[in-house]
Amino acid sequence: MKGYIGKVLRIDLNNLTSSVESLNLLWAEKYIGGKGLAMKYIYEELPPKVDPLSPKNKMILMTGPLTGTAVPCSGKLTIAAKSPATNTILDCSIGGHIAGEIKYAGYDAIIIEGKAEKPVYLHIENSKVELKSAGNLWGKGTHETEFFLKATCGPEVKVLAIGPAGENMVPMACITSELYRQAGRGGIGAVMGSKNLKAIVVKGTNGVKVADPKQLTARAKEIMKKDTLSDDNLWAYTDGTPIIVELSNSTGVLPTRNFQQGTFDGFDKIHAEAVKAVRKDKKGCLSCGLGCGNYVNTGQSVVEGPEYETLSIGGSNCGIDDLEAIVEFNKLCDDLGLDTISTGNTIAFAMELTEKGIKDFNLKFGDVKGYLKATKNIANKETELALGVKGLSEKYGGKEFAMQVKGLEFPGYEPRGSWGMGLAYATSDRGACHTRAWPIADEAYGDMDPFTIEGKAELVVGLQHYNAAKFSTILCDFWALSLETVAELLTLVTGKQYTEKDLKIIGERIVNLARMFNIREGFDAKDDRLPQRIYKEALKTGATAEKLLPEEEFNKMLREYYQIRGWDSEGKPTGEKLDELAI
Amino acid sequence: MKLSLDISRCIGCKLCQIACSAEKEGVYQPTAARLQIEKIYTMQGLETKVAICTQCLDCVEVCPTEAIKYENGMLTYSEEECTGCNECADACPQGVIVVKADTVGICDSCGGSPECVNWCPHGALTFGCREGGGVG
Amino acid sequence: MKIFLRLCGPLERYGGHGINEISLQNSIKASQLLSELQIPSSLKVLIVVNGVKVTGDYNLQAGDIVVLFPPVSGG
Ligand code: SF4
Ligand code: SF4
């Protein structure tokens, strides 16, 4: 199959060696690349129940057949492992230019196993692969690390790096590239830290060949102009994700004060217009005409961001309406190597524990100083907040309002104002996540009734298949394109005929494979649930006043979801389902 | 007629380079493109590094066999006449001449309708007679 | 009667940036306003009036503050 390089680079950190092997093309046919293919490798290569922070865990960097080609928005890289935050399977998606660079260097994937005795960084320049000492970089932020590596290895290299949070194996540690792009969730940075791997530096000067370059180039250009750069997607260029702040506030789904409210009085100090007022420039990922990145400078602090997740979870959810403070929080998280979603949630949870007198963390909603200090302390593991929301609630209580599923903290959408979103959080393969399915676009932001379970199970199932396929090719989440178009592009790239139906089946296969991994780790139906706050506590303001998601309704929706999926009442795929999907 | 780049519109997507390599070499390979545009973070912040043909004509001047010519406001290149001496690539102040096995890759404006310009999603790259040309 | 209109993101191209005052002869439905602005009907626009989401059937009242959002994807 064209589009693939056909090569995997395997790094053994125990022995500081590397080897090159063929990509498993049989698996590639069934799982494409990106999320799906990385998960297949993880599923096959990890023994059950490995400690995610032990040398036995593996970290897989996976590109896809579209990576590095002229297909718009194909600049993402999957990074997968078993998650130290959730113990589930974990795949993260990171933008910038690193994915293309790996492919131009001559690899579809990089598999990292074992643990180096001392801190190292991996330096790849086409076929030249070296592990070098990172002793001088240990303890440094991701920004200084990237600047140092560019000065040492050449300004054109692309870098993935962890900060102190990853080194300290904090379960909300991320991996950073180009200073402000993240593989954010589930503690992927802690996995890298546990391997004593500070950074990965890549330079690639080769090309990517596809089945029908003439036709692909012509179609990709046409599709970019007509489809990518249309009113349906250009919000990403004009505003970027901050546009969602006002949308969420108007529909009552903007998480506020640890999900106690769905609207925020100071929303207009942190919405898109406010961000655009301090925006200095725009930046996109490789091959992306949407360029969603907002480069802002508040005078105090610069960042590429803040994204909606940071503005909501690190803003309204912490009671903070000071954009300058959020930008500073964002920059700190990026530099220290922390996921802003999990970090913001943990701080908000600690604020509520303090407010309720359960445990005094000396943190108050809206307290900018405390919030910025807590962020630094989390990265350095100098506070119990480094346990994350689930860990804290197990130690001090407050489980009813510990906003997490399977150990992963909620992203910025209130499920009481979009009931399908609740199901999406409960059933996502890596815990509460908004990128496995985003039904809120049809619910609160669309024309479906948000406060009913009617049709939601089917909606979430379909979206999970759609996203699994899309994240496996790999394309960016922000481009709302049809699976038909994906199939057309994939056919021109690989030379293998793909249809919309094939992609739906592949999506379903990936969702089921992830489920099988999690079942092997001991997860079942009882883990597919939401914190009590969602079931029992009504919201008070705006479009979601007096709304909750009653537990019986949620359970009904979950049962229907299992049924549609062909899973038993324990949430386990039946033998027939697995046969049907050839897993 | 030459290329110009309006930095304020560029998002650093490299579609121009991808398109150039596809058009000229039949492969997707930004390093094989006859222009290089990168948005990169430095200690000073977000900077745009640009290398595009400015039509300074240094290459035309140094070419010993007249393989590179300047005609009708564009560069032309003849593979037959090129000896692969790489003098042009060494002379090019922009570093946009691609060195290949025994030939070179010159920005010939795609004969008047440059693919990089056609692809640029936000009209950052333009082609024409703009006074001064180059980077703005 | 007068209403106030703000278009978000790429919708600005249908009526400009910021808050615009619009005079209407008589009360019209929100969906009619969209077509008068020449926003293609195929585009799934979210209409918010005075901070609350409404459908295209909403009858605009004098003094209404209308905000129009484009469809978004992928959070
Ligand atoms: S290719 Fe280089 S040397 Fe030749 S005209 Fe263009 S900028 Fe000058
Ligand atoms: S295609 Fe246009 S926006 Fe993209 S890097 Fe090239 S000049 Fe910049």
Automatic annotation (TrEMBL), chain A:
Pfam families: AFOR_C, AFOR_N. SUPFAM superfamilies: Aldehyde ferredoxin oxidoreductase, C-terminal domains, Aldehyde ferredoxin oxidoreductase, N-terminal domain. SMART domains: AFOR_N. Keywords: 4Fe-4S, Iron, Iron-sulfur, Metal-binding, Oxidoreductase. The keyword Transferase does not apply. Residues 4-206 form the Aldehyde ferredoxin oxidoreductase N-terminal domain. GO terms for molecular function: 4 iron, 4 sulfur cluster binding; electron transfer activity; metal ion binding; oxidoreductase activity, acting on the aldehyde or oxo group of donors, iron-sulfur protein as acceptor. Its cofactor is [4Fe-4S] cluster; tungstopterin. InterPro entries: Ald_Fedxn_OxRdtase_dom2, Ald_Fedxn_OxRdtase_dom3, Ald_Fedxn_OxRdtase_N, Ald_Fedxn_OxRdtase_N_sf, OxRdtase_Ald_Fedxn_C, Tungsten_al_ferr_oxy-like_C, W-dependent_AOR. Coiled coil: none annotated. Belongs to the AOR/FOR family. This is Aldehyde:ferredoxin oxidoreductase.
UniProtKB/TrEMBL annotation, chain B:
It comes from the Bacteria. It comes from Desulfoscipio geothermicus DSM 3669. PROSITE patterns: 4FE4S_FER_1 (PS00198), 4FE4S_FER_2 (PS51379). Residues 1-30, 44-72, 73-102 form the 4Fe-4S ferredoxin-type domain. The keyword 4Fe-4S applies. Coiled coil: none annotated. Pfam families: Fer4_3, Fer4_4, Fer4_9. One of its GO terms (molecular function) is metal ion binding. InterPro entries: 4Fe4S_Fe-S-bd, 4Fe4S_Fe_S_CS, RnfB_subfamily. Gene3D superfamilies: 3.30.70.20. This is Fe-S-cluster-containing dehydrogenase component. Keywords: 4Fe-4S, Electron transport, Iron, Iron-sulfur, Metal-binding, Transport.
Automatic annotation (TrEMBL), chain C:
InterPro entries: Beta-grasp_dom_sf, Mopterin_synth/thiamin_S_b, ThiS/MoaD-like. SUPFAM superfamilies: MoaD/ThiS. It comes from the Bacteria. Gene3D superfamilies: 3.10.20.30. This is ThiS family protein.
